[in-house]
């Protein structure tokens, strides 16, 4: 009981200031917590006995103390509960603070170095211009010149601050007021409609951090924001941000975006143009004028309204500019069809200049008008060919005098398939190869009017029949080629000699080993439309071969020439007389033969080609200005429904060539 009384006295002494000295004295006389409650007489008896033995005085105020003891018993359990809670709460807070401080220190040591942030080294890009000088494709990130806030159009920083971070000039990297406002707006809206990140936080996140939503990333973002604010001025932070942020379409930085969308420097942006770019920061893909022009204009109007709110412009000006904010002048909105050509070019660049990390500009041979016409002709042809089981097509058009590729369509839809059938697909050309046989005969002394038997022929058990199953008997070489007679062609090949045919093919540009069998003359060796275009260009060019190409010049960013196409042509491989005679014969093929659907309002020569079971259908032809090859078929080799080279491919050829030659004078072919 003595130990119990002692323990009870300690919390009682703490109540002196609250209960007074008398209450404290009464508490000291209490025998202990949990002791049985006694009557008023009990203390007297106990005191008497105690006094008899020890002479101790009876405590004063014992009557009142007994009443207060009941009150003490009601408060003490709460105190006993609070004491350990306070103790452990303090310890938890202390060690929690130590842990947080440790985490902050640890994350601080993980932060990247920011001192060279304003000296940004970036990967190189490749920009391609068409033959007329227009930029039409960019590979790699597109960057412009670094510009400071002082150098760029004043509308741009004003627009960015108005729509992204109005308190940017005043906060220390993190904006508690802006964060609270964003939270209130989002709660009121019931969804996230406004962000609380400052421009400094966005810079930290865009440059150094991943896009995961972990607590660790958020801590580093906050620390980086504080650090950036301590190391750079506000203008420097805004300049770094605007020179690095992504604006869509491969453009990084405001100068690249200005050149991409408006063909001008960031120094020269108008108010509406600056508002568009500032509005795109929220979502470069969503608010791109190429992706959704209407939504981009709506977003621009919102930015102009924000600029009016901060007093940069008046509301009337905002409404006036919003009605017609900008005029796009860059290569946005152009179809993806040229991507077959530009991918082909991009893959070749390292073979000319090696692997480089700096910016390069490539001047190509592409004619954007012809490219558009080619895409339209192929699209219309495939729309018609769908009912005939034709799923794919390719077209190549080049200048017969130089080999410069002017248009290239590698398939029905680049977005669906990036496989370039104009360059990569190797298919049997069929009767397109027959002119090689007739050219070998002309070089051997045969004339177009010489006669050949179009009758059944058998060679070592192989008997090639004509496409229609009929035979014309004795016919001229011109008739045999115009009507694409298989039997007559193979008979001519055997008389001229397969070795001579292979030799002519090699001089025309065939690099692959050709078959040695009798089927050589029927085009069983696979080739691409680009290969075929090169061969027919030699026919059109009077026997002088050309190399199909798409690159004229490659320059480094500073203007140094890294590569320039040599102007010297290849030596003549075919006699000009033989080539001219063959052109005359191929003109008859279009005028009165299997290629009559390809006829134009000017001299044109060409040849149809159809492989076995209607798997491939071709037309290759040329004028004095353009060589064009068209292939139609299916990627898996599925047979079409009686599609021949004289049908759908010839029609695509005609539609394209008619439009391509609009306004050009009629020129004679180099015939004999």
UniProtKB/TrEMBL annotation:
Organism placement in taxonomy: Bacteria, Pseudomonadati, Pseudomonadota, Alphaproteobacteria, Rhodospirillales
Family listed: In the N-terminal section; belongs to the glycosyltransferase 51 family.
Signal peptide: none
Catalytic activity: [GlcNAc-(1->4)-Mur2Ac(oyl-L-Ala-gamma-D-Glu-L-Lys-D-Ala-D-Ala)](n)-di-trans,octa-cis-undecaprenyl diphosphate + beta-D-GlcNAc-(1->4)-Mur2Ac(oyl-L-Ala-gamma-D-Glu-L-Lys-D-Ala-D-Ala)-di-trans,octa-cis-undecaprenyl diphosphate = [GlcNAc-(1->4)-Mur2Ac(oyl-L-Ala-gamma-D-Glu-L-Lys-D-Ala-D-Ala)](n+1)-di-trans,octa-cis-undecaprenyl diphosphate + di-trans,octa-cis-undecaprenyl diphosphate + H(+); Preferential cleavage: (Ac)2-L-Lys-D-Ala-|-D-Ala. Also transpeptidation of peptidyl-alanyl moieties that are N-acyl substituents of D-alanine
Domain Penicillin-binding protein transpeptidase: 394-658
Biased composition (Polar residues): 1-10
Biased composition (Low complexity): 20-29, 42-54
Occurrences of domain Glycosyl transferase family (ranges): 141-307
Biological or metabolic pathway of the protein: Cell wall biogenesis; peptidoglycan biosynthesis
The protein, known as: Penicillin-binding protein 1A
Coiled-coil regions listed in the entry: none
Organism (species): Thalassobaculum litoreum DSM 18839
Transmembrane annotation, as ranges: 85-109
Cellular-component GO terms for this entry: outer membrane-bounded periplasmic space
Sorted UniProt keywords: Carboxypeptidase, Cell shape, Cell wall biogenesis/degradation, Glycosyltransferase, Hydrolase, Membrane, Multifunctional enzyme, Peptidoglycan synthesis, Protease, Transferase, Transmembrane, Transmembrane helix
GO biological process: cell wall organization; peptidoglycan biosynthetic process; proteolysis; regulation of cell shape
Compositional bias (Basic residues): 55-75
InterPro entries registered for this protein in UniProt: Beta-lactam/transpept-like, Glyco_trans_51, Glycosyltr_51/Transpeptidase, Lysozyme-like_dom_sf, PBP_transglycosylase, PCN-bd_Tpept
């Amino acid at each position: 009981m003595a130990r119990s009384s002692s323990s009870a006295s300690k919390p009682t002494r703490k109540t002196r200031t609250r209960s007074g000295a008398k209450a404290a004295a009464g508490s000291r006389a209490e025998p202990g917590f949990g002791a049985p409650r006694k009557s008023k007489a009990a203390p007297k008896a106990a005191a008497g006995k105690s006094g008899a033995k020890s002479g101790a005085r009876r405590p004063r105020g014992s009557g009142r103390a007994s009443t207060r003891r009941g009150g003490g018993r009601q408060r003490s359990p709460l105190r006993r509960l609070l004491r350990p809670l306070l103790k452990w709460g303090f310890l938890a807070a202390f060690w929690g603070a130590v842990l947080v401080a440790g985490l902050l220190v640890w994350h601080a040591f993980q932060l990247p170095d920011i001192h060279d942030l304003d000296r940004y080294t970036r990967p190189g890009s490749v920009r391609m211009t068409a033959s007329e000088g227009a930029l039409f494709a960019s590979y790699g990130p597109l960057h412009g010149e670094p510009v400071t806030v002082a150098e760029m159009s004043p509308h741009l920083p004003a627009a960015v601050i108005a729509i992204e971070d109005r308190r940017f000039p005043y906060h220390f990297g993190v904006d508690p007021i802006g964060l609270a406002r964003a939270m209130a707006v989002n709660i009121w809206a019931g969804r996230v409609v406004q962000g609380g990140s400052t421009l400094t936080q966005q810079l930290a996140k865009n440059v150094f951090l991943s896009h995961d939503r972990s607590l660790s990333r958020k801590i580093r973002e906050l620390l980086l924001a504080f650090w950036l604010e301590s190391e750079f001025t506000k203008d420097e932070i805004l300049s770094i941000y605007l020179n690095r942020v992504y604006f869509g379409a491969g453009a990084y930085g405001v100068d690249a975006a200005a050149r991409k969308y408006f063909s001008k420097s960031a120094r020269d942006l108008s108010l509406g143009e600056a508002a568009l770019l500032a509005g795109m920061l929220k979502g470069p893909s969503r608010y791109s004028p190429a992706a959704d022009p209407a939504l981009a204009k709506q977003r621009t109007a919102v930015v102009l309204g924000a600029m009016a709110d901060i007093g940069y412009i008046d509301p009337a000006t905002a409404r006036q500019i919003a009605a017609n904010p900008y005029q796009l002048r860059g290569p946005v909105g152009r179809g993806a069809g040229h991507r077959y050509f530009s991918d082909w070019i991009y893959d070749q660049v390292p073979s000319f200049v090696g692997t480089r990390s700096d910016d390069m500009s490539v001047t190509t041979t592409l004619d954007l008008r012809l490219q558009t016409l080619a895409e339209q002709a192929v699209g219309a042809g495939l729309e018609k060919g769908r009912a005939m089981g034709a799923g794919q097509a390719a077209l190549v058009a080049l200048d017969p005098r130089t080999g410069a590729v002017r248009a290239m369509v590698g398939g029905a839809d680049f977005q669906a398939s990036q496989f370039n059938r104009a360059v990569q697909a190797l298919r049997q050309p069929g009767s397109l190869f027959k002119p090689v046989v007739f050219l070998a005969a002309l070089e051997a002394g045969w004339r177009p009017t010489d006669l050949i038997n179009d009758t059944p022929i058998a060679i070592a058990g192989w008997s090639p029949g004509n496409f229609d199953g009929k035979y014309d008997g004795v016919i001229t070489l011109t008739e045999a080629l115009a009507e694409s007679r298989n039997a007559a062609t193979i008979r001519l090949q055997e008389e001229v000699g397969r070795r001579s045919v292979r030799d002519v093919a090699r001089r025309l540009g065939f690099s692959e080993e050709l078959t040695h069998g009798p089927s050589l003359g029927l085009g069983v060796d696979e080739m691409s439309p680009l290969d075929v275009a090169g061969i027919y260009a030699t026919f059109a060019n009077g026997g002088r071969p050309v190399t199909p190409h798409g690159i004229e010049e490659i320059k480094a960013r500073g203007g140094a020439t890294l590569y320039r196409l040599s102007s010297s042509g290849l030596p003549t491989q075919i006699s000009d007389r033989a080539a001219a005679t063959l052109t005359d014969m191929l003109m008859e093929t279009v005028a009165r033969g299997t290629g009559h659907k390809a006829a134009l309002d000017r001299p044109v020569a060409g040849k149809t080609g159809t492989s076995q079971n209607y798997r491939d259908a071709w037309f290759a032809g040329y004028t004095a200005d353009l060589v064009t090859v068209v292939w139609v078929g299916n990627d898996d080799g599925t047979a079409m429904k009686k599609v021949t080279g004289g049908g759908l491919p010839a029609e695509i050829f005609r539609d394209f060539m008619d439009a391509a030659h609009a306004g050009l004078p009629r020129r004679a072919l180099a015939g004999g």
